């Protein structure tokens, strides 16, 4: 499909308008519930409920965003939606495994991650040869950055499959970094990508960068706490234990 005019709520009609409304609504729900889940006590009811809503919202947002990007011919962002959905889904099943996981699910998700990485590398190389090293409004460094994240995720999947699963701090780290990065995708897209919707006094890039980049700061903190120090705080261990106990009492 060729390049089309950028669609907006003011000009879109029919299914395209419905898709935009769904995308915006799911994104807002994802941002709110994501930050609630980040700061709520891990394993507590608020954390579980907000975390599940975050996953549902991000999957919906990602799928719709991919469709809209394809409709507009924006190849630089068409894979971003499925990759975001992949991140939050794999983050969820890291701590809440499926009752009956299909045999090829894990390898299929790994192939998806590697495919997104390869796709971004190819686009990034093409962008380097374009004016301002930008493709579809996305700078080449950002394309390579997203590709490196996808590559890291795919390698993590491969290691998990080879080891027959992950446990302990590695399992928690997998959950935390994928959830936080998924939230960063939503917060960055909203606070830095939709600045025109904010009142003029709030349109300072430095001001909007605070909530946009907060998930990355939180991610770095938790990776240091969980992977570098190699242990979890007592309150998180207690919350995780309570969570597992609730799953036994309240199967779903």
Q: How far from one another are the termini? A: 42 Å
Tally of separate helices:
8
The structural domain count equals: 1
Low-confidence regions = none
- Strand ordering within the main sheet: 1-2
Determine the fraction of residues in helical runs and give it as a percent range. Answer: over 70%
**CA-based shape:** globular
Listing every helix as H and every strand as E from the N terminus to the C terminus, the arrangement reads HHHHEEHHHH
Beta-strand level of the residues, as a percent range? under 5%
Mean pLDDT across all amino acids: 84
> How many β-strand runs?
2
Main pleated-sheet profile: 2 strands, antiparallel
Specify the structural class: mainly alpha
How large, in whole angstroms, is the Cα Rg? 19 Å
């Amino acid at each position: 499909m060729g390049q089309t005019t950028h669609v907006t709520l003011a000009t879109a009609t029919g299914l395209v308008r419905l898709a935009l409304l769904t995308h915006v609504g799911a994104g807002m729900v994802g941002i709110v519930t994501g930050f609630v889940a980040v700061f709520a006590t891990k394993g507590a009811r608020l954390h579980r409920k907000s975390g599940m809503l975050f996953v549902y919202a991000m999957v919906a947002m990602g799928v719709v965003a991919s469709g809209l990007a394809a409709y507009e011919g924006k190849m630089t962002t068409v894979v971003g939606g499925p990759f975001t959905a992949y991140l939050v889904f794999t983050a969820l099943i890291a701590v809440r495994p499926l009752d009956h996981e299909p045999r090829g699910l894990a390898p299929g998700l790994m192939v998806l991650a590697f495919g997104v990485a390869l796709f971004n590398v190819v686009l990034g190389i093409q962008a380097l040869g374009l004016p301002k090293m930008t493709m579809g409004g996305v700078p080449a460094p950002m394309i390579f950055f997203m590709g490196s994240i996808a590559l890291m995720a795919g390698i993590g999947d491969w290691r998990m499959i080879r080891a027959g699963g992950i446990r302990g701090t590695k399992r928690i780290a997998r959950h935390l970094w994928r959830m936080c990065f998924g939230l960063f995708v939503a917060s960055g897209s909203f606070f830095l990508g939709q600045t025109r919707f904010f009142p003029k006094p709030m349109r300072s890039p430095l001001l909007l960068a605070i909530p946009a980049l907060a998930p990355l700061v939180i991610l770095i903190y938790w990776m240091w706490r969980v992977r570098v120090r190699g242990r979890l705080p007592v309150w998180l261990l207690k919350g995780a234990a309570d969570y597992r106990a609730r799953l036994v009492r309240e199967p779903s």
